[in-house]
Amino acid sequence: MLRIPRPARSVRGERPERPFTGYKLAQAVVSADGARTGFAGLTLGSSQVYGVTADAACVWNGRHRPPRRWCGCGFYCLHELSDARALGCATANRSALLLEVTASGRYIRYERGLRYSRQRIRVIADSRCGCGRPGTALADAGTGLVGWRHLTPVCGRCAAGRPVLSMAGFAARLDGPVLVAPALTAAGTGPSAAAPAGAAAAEESPFAVLSAEIALLHARLDDLQARLGR
Amino acid sequence: MRLGKEKAAGYVEDTEACAPAEAPVPDPERAQAAPEPERAVAAG
User: Fold this and answer.
1) Can you give the pTM of this predicted structure?
2) Predicted complex ipTM
3) Among A57, A80, A167, A187, which one is least packed by beta carbons within 10 Å?
């Protein structure tokens, strides 16, 4: 349950030279046609999908600009990575991605984080499979929004046989550049790299099969061309 | 999400939006597929 922080005292008018770096959790989503990916919030913003760069909108009152004091609107992030990791331990947040973001625009700064109006996602920093290994791919979570399917992180071992989207594939379908932590990619050196070869192959199967079929088609065309030449 | 007590409010520009350090790691899945050059075929 989200608790709206109350101001201890009114301090206004900060104008920092550089935007803030923060950490937050978000649900990964993929469009119905699989062509686009994005993020959805976990609590207040759970019904809204946003991309790499986004401006906050109040879900209750469209007449004011987030973040409004006495309203809970705006994007949220935490100053410390450790706080975001701790938040990810909660049952409701287990399938969320941990993101590193740049927070800018109008903001209210709190002890542990920010509420702000503009966000740019920079890094998918962490994700966990239900088994505890790093989530190197994303599978259908079985829930979603109109037009969007929720995704849940899975490791190579738990993904075996399931249709999945690699973390790099997820990032490639976003509407802007986002880095993926090395431990979450196929070449990562984390525990997922020790997954069985069969599981890894299953994870990459759509692309591998397509490449193999294209290579076979090329070979047959070459053969046909050679016969016609004779 | 509990953020604690309010400390301040303000406005800041995203001055790092186009910084070179933000350039993504090359991703083969993002690369545009380009057709391979056609082979020369002897005609006639």
Assistant:
1) 0.71
2) 0.71
3) A187
